[in-house]
Design goal:
Layout: H1 11-14, E1 41-43, E2 54-59, E3 65-69, E4 72-76, E5 81-84, E6 100-105, E7 111-115, E8 120-124, E9 129-133, E10 145-150, E11 156-160, E12 163-167, E13 192-197, E14 203-207, E15 211-214, E16 222-223, E17 225-226, E18 236-241, E19 247-251, E20 256-259, E21 265-268, E22 284-289, E23 294-299, E24 303-308, E25 314-317, E26 332-337, E27 343-347, E28 350-354, E29 361-365, E30 379-384, E31 390-394, E32 399-403, E33 407-412, E34 428-433, E35 439-443, E36 446-450, E37 458-459, E38 473-477, E39 480-485, E40 488-493, E41 515-520, E42 525-530, E43 533-538, E44 544-548, E45 559-566, E46 572-578, E47 581-587, E48 593-598, E49 609-614, E50 620-624, E51 627-632, E52 637-641, E53 652-659, E54 665-669, E55 672-676, E56 690-697, E57 700-702, E58 716-718, E59 724-731, E60 741-747, E61 754-757, E62 762-766, E63 771-779, E64 791-797, H2 805-864, H3 874-890, E65 895-901, H4 904-911, H5 913-930, E66 936-941, E67 944-949, H6 954-970, E68 973-975, E69 978-980, E70 984-990, H7 997-1013, E71 1019-1021
Parallel strand pairs: 17-21, 58-64, 70-71
Antiparallel strand pairs: 1-28, 2-3, 3-4, 4-5, 6-7, 7-8, 8-9, 10-11, 11-12, 13-14, 14-15, 15-16, 18-19, 19-20, 20-21, 22-23, 23-24, 24-25, 26-27, 27-28, 29-55, 30-31, 31-32, 32-33, 34-35, 35-36, 36-37, 38-39, 39-40, 41-42, 42-43, 43-44, 45-46, 46-47, 47-48, 49-50, 50-51, 51-52, 53-54, 54-55, ...
Helix pairs in contact: 4-5, 5-6
Amino acid sequence: MARAIVTGGILALLSPAGPCLAAGEIATPQRWQNLIGTEFQNYGQEQGLPPVLPTALAQDGDGFLWIGTQSGLIRWDGYRFRIYDATTDGAARGLPSGWIDVLHTDAAGVLWIGTEADGLARYDRNDDRFIRTPVGPGRNPSRHIDAIADDGRGGIWVGTDGGLYHLPRRAAPGAASGRDHGDAWSLPGDRIRALLLDREGRLWIGKDKGLVRRDPGSNAPAPVTMAGEGADDIHVSTLFEDADGQVWIGTTLHGLYAFDPGDQTGRPFNGADSTGWTPRTGHVSAITAAGEHEIWVAMHTAGVVAINTATHQIRRIRHDQLVPNSLAHDDVWAMLSDRAGSVWIGDVGGLSYHPRDAGTTLAVFGDTRRPNGVTDPDVSSVFATRDGRIWLGFLNGGANIIDPAAGRVAQLRPDPAHPDTALPPDIVTAMAETADGAVYIGTARGLYKADRRGRDVAVARPPGRDPRGPVRALLVDGASLWIGGPDGLWRTPIGAGAPAALSPPHLGRLSNPSVYALLAGANGELWIGTADGLNRLDVASGAITTILSAPATSTAPAGLVSSLLRDRQGRLWVGTFGGGISVMTGRDAAGRPQFRRIGVAEGLPNPNVNKLLLDGTGLVWASTDGSLAVIDPANFRVRSIQRANGAALTIYWATSGATDQWGEPIFGAEGGVTVIRPGWPPAWTAPAPVVVSDVRIGGTSIAGGRFNGAGSTDPLVLAAGTKSVAVEFSALDFTAPQRNRYAYRLAGFDKTWIQTDATRRIAAYTNLSPGRYVLELRGSDRDGVWNPAEVRMPIHVLATWYQTPWANLALAAIIIAAATGGFVVVERLRTANLLRRQAELEQQIAARTADLSTANARLSELATTDPLTGCANRRYFMERAQWLFELGRRTAPVSLAILDLDQFKLINDAHGHPVGDRVLQMVARTIRDEIRVTDLFGRIGGEEFAVLLPDTLADNALVLLDRLRVALAEAEVMAGDLGIRITASLGVAEQRADEDFASLYARADAALYAAKAGGRDRVVTG
């Protein structure tokens, strides 16, 4: 649901003559560097990860993620954590016990495991077991393994507490004995902490004390010169080579060093953030790539430092208790950049995952501990001034002035004690800039004006209009200020010496007195968006043409008009609540405007459009109730930008947004703002390999890894009498695994492919006839792109004795014997057997019929019921409400109410989702208790419910719904010893004779927005 009704369009930002960039060009990539935040998907006990500390991370050749811990090993396929430790089957499969220090995937895709005190092992995927590999003289298996690196020839280097050892390439990759212990190229007495084989073939060796390097062709390591204080005594903890060939050296006490390819000396890294903090001291625990020219450096107890390797500019990534999806904990132990370019972080809080994105969206979180950051999380209004600064208005009042390079430069605090010289403690809805740089600020409690520095705030008191009247839209057009609100459209001159008088409001001539959006058009026209349509005002003559919303036609937009935009071709774009986007493409022969609809069917994430903005390349961006979308005006192609695409913020405020002078769209959201880099986002190209994650024969788990990758041609053999086989599979796209699609087919049994989704990733078969089959598995990535590489698993089902040729010959002999004299005995035996089988079949049919009846009842319940609250789900509510609506046409009108809980997110953030779930259940019970038995109600999404009241006029509905509102405010849910209460806002609309159900729903939804904007905890009719 859109979170507020706020400002309309702004002339300076919507003009086609604005900033113009080449397609794909990025404007000033470092401007927001000191403000942007980084979002993570955090995995802990609630997501199935055991309460362990991840100490090492790796991705094997098949694409599985492996997590080393202090007590074993864990494998992740995007859906399920499989645990290998002493309490499960890890020990039985040969996993070394204890603390895992290092994980390494070699050039052949084999996973190696180095432990704290139990030596080295490799994982054999064919048998799902671990093979211990002795290291060093005496083939001692119990060494402390700190580091592993490839040797460039198929072997590996192993760093231990007793020196450095080399394990050459295996002669037989599948040999059970593993690699030979090889030659011991030892550094006696040295503990080897870190290893790196760079692109030039040089082996860098980090020790407890100092750094050495072995160049190609040399058998002796040479010391690496390090500059700076304490350089002779550094304890190397980790080594990393970036995309430019620069080697980064992490230490345990002296922070970070950098070694340029053309230099002979490692130098301290002295880059600092905007506060002067530098990673020059402290313990560096891991380094990994996080983009083409960015590395992330993990610091024990200090979070992560993102470093631009070209400019050495840095920003810090830390846990912030005020940001729900920040880094789980600042004590970071391990990091990994996977093959898709996403970053995994192991920390004290569990596992944190940051999906790779192309830098299309940047998140600036509000209300964080970042110095000079945005002070409030709910950005209800955005405005870009001509001097390059961004003004942000907030839901709870006040505003910030942001310099994208320096951060917050001014703050306008709300002050209810001084209502004439400070902003009120209420929503900021709109802003507009005058020629001299002053900014008008519209709020729910009147119009204010501030100078360009955010000072000298004063209430504006134009005669003729209530000075405390709500403002929804502002537009400066030349020497005029246009004001839109629930009281219509107003105009006043601005500038020195101009009379402070408003022209009469255009009430009675607009399609609706509630104005939400304004846009200056060509040829002296003004476009006005209202609650039920579009209006064109000829400014010179005062003539108004109205276009009423009509969902089913091409001659009008559909729903409340929330945003207006003019593209570079001069076409008008109209964003609506409930009807998506309508683009005016021209007029027909009769002069009627023609609109092209862009809705969910065309790829829009949600039909509720909050704001339309034009970027510097001419693309149109839309914030919706289902995240962002970008539309190419040339062909109307739509691409949805979801959380998996890097959009950290997904709940946007209605009409909150602006395009800055660099062509960057900036959208106000719940949690901060999203900044868009201009241009079409690049396609997701990382493949999603399909793998077998588990195989069960007759309920017993067996190894299935041999069928992954190139796959094995050896069949999976089902012994005679085996009743079932089940194969679990996954497409390893970790960015949004719930969106992956699947298909499978058992060739020789299934006639067609069986399509399925992420919730049903198991191909299960029972009572297969003897024969040879091939199970084929397919998977897609998050965008539905199928991986052309399939898993093909040969399956051979062996025959039982009575299914063999010898049994068939014996049966034939019995038949012949019956024909030559034993007919009566055989016939009696056959008849008795048939009668017995008939009785068994009748019992099975009766049982199956009962099971089917129960299953059908359960399926019907699942299809119509919201599983959390037990009330009708959205699909069933909409179907039933439509039927009652049509019945109301022939009997008495119905009334429809939409209810949304006020600030429900705060409950989830403060008390957790389990408490939030109990609140939703309480709300459903209260609604059920307060409404009549003839009324219909359901949960239609998140914290939003709907109630349809048959045979009920709006006045009567108001009485019932206000009683419900009071009952909800008085209800309580306990969270420990604390009683949790919540209020609700409700919008209600009465059925009209000439409208359809979509129109009724849109009016009720608009009334709900009005209830929210009016202060919440109220019922408003529409």
